[in-house]
Design a protein that fits this description.
The protein has about 450 residues and is α+β, with helices and mostly antiparallel strands. It has helices at about 1-50, 115-130, 170-240, 250-280, 290-300, 300-310, 325-345, 390-395, 400-410; strands spanning about 95-100, 105-110, 135-140, 140-150, 160-165, 285-290, 310-315, 320-325, 350-360, 360-370, 415-420, 425-430. The two termini are about 55 Å apart.
């Protein structure tokens, strides 16, 4: 499946790159060709106009016997004295003929690249064409022609002026450009496939990771749900096996069913929460509250749990700490971190909870003196369903820390852990200061803590 997807992405990327390059290349080529044709057309029309007015009498322009031209004649397209243009100048590729009403050539300009017979044949082709301008391929060269009526003659006796422009040099230049673009295009084809394959591989990394995470998620969720369902089914079989017994006599099995049902409900709620995260649904209902009060309310239910296990619970908090966020989710985060710390701290150990507000940052820290976490798995500790080892699982589904991370990040904060095997673990959640100008009454008139 992934191979086909990689190939498809490669072909799509390559097709897009090649299409863009093709449009760019063809656009550049045709724009250059159109601009060259436009410039040639402008120059041809100007030359014909100058020849019709007598400002140019020959090509290349020659000095007259009575001296150089002056006035408008001097300022024509030649741009100065009527000296022969050097090779490669704009006028070196132009020549013209004058044709009498009878159809014979009565004048040929000096700069003729063709023999007399060839010139007559080229002129005949131009005159036989019904178009006033066009292009003729003659003797391996391309010639633009422009026909015009000679001025100063009546309509019945008007001769014809035919200006020729040897367009071979421009055509050759465009051929070179086209060849260069073709070569570059071939190289771009190879590079585009290589780049597309590289981009497809990069694009496949998150896809494969997401696919693997989905498979692991489904496998782990199925496993976590199968366990309580098995317990429930087993206890129900016991109850159904003794239909004559009273409800009170079956309370042990019914209590087991209830306990597993509660556990499964919590797991389903966690899965639904994470599903909302994955579907980009809104998670928070923000409002202003006091972080320190929310912390104390979240810690309070764990006092009895810690005391029952013989764990010393120590809480300290700055007050007041105003915050603009989702109070219920913040309490959920505190509960997750406390539950995790107490479960992994042996009797006689200490769990310390602290809340500090420093500058523009609120820091919540939960530290324990339990067995700690091996450094090799610290990077995975916030992954869904991840269990460092069986000894730390304690019946947990492995979703708590993943949810804690989502809650912290959805508030614009972050959560981290530092630990070493046998030295306990410290979880630190940092939040940007959400204190606002809002004033609401505190739920308690005094700070309280317990240990």
């Amino acid at each position: 499946m992934f191979q086909k997807l990689r190939l498809r992405l490669t072909l799509i990327n390559a097709a897009i790159i090649l299409t863009l390059f093709l449009f760019l290349t063809l656009g550049s080529y045709f724009f250059s060709q159109a601009d060259m044709s436009r410039r040639a057309d402008f120059l041809e029309r100007r030359l014909v106009a100058d020849i019709q007015r007598g400002m140019i009498t020959d090509l290349p322009p020659r000095l007259q016997k009575d001296g150089p031209p002056s006035g408008p004649e001097r300022d024509s397209l030649t741009g100065g004295p009527a000296d022969p243009p050097p090779p490669g100048s704009p006028l070196s590729d132009f020549f013209f003929v004058k044709i009498s009403p009878a159809g014979t050539i009565v004048f040929r300009s000096s700069g003729q690249p063709l023999a007399v017979s060839q010139l007559e044949e080229l002129t005949k082709e131009a005159m036989q064409s019904g178009k006033p301008r066009g292009r003729i391929n003659f003797a391996g060269n391309n010639y633009n022609y422009l026909k015009a009526q000679l001025e100063g003659q009546s309509a019945g006796q008007a001769g014809t002026l035919v200006l020729f422009h040897d367009f071979s040099r421009e055509t050759g230049m465009m051929g070179i450009v086209l060849t260069a673009l073709t070569g570059v295009g071939f190289i771009c084809v190879l590079l585009s496939f290589g780049a597309s394959f590289w981009m497809a591989n990069r694009a496949m990394i998150p896809i494969q990771k997401a696919w693997q995470q989905q498979k692991d998620f489904l496998a782990d969720a199925s496993h976590e749900l199968r366990t309580p369902l098995t317990v429930i089914r087993t206890n129900l079989d016991v109850v159904r096996g003794s239909p004559e017994e009273s409800v009170s006599s079956q309370s042990k099995w019914l209590d087991n069913i209830q306990e597993e049902t509660v556990s499964m409900a919590k797991l389903v709620d966690s899965l639904l929460f994470l599903a909302r995260v994955d579907s980009q649904q809104p998670l928070l209902l923000k409002r202003f509250f006091f972080f320190d009060e929310a912390l104390m309310e979240a810690v309070s239910p764990f006092e009895a749990v810690a005391a029952a296990k013989g764990v010393f619970l120590k809480v300290s908090s700055d007050t007041p700490v105003g915050y603009d966020g989702d109070e219920a989710r913040i309490k959920q985060l505190v509960g997750i971190l406390l539950d995790n710390a107490i479960r992994h701290t042996p009797s006689g150990g200490v769990v310390s909870v602290s809340l500090l507000k420093i500058n523009a940052k609120i820091t919540l820290s939960v530290a324990d003196t339990g067995e700690g976490i091996d450094a090799a798995v610290l990077e995975k500790i916030f992954d869904r369903f991840f269990q460092a080892d069986n000894s730390r699982s304690g019946g947990s589904s492995g979703l708590g820390l993943a949810i804690a991370k989502v809650v912290a990040e959805s508030h614009g904060g972050k959560i981290s852990v530092s630990s070493a095997a046998g030295e306990g673990a410290t979880f630190v959640a940092e939040f940007p200061d959400g204190d606002t100008a809002a004033t609401i009454p505190r739920r308690r008139g005094k700070k309280f803590s317990f240990c």
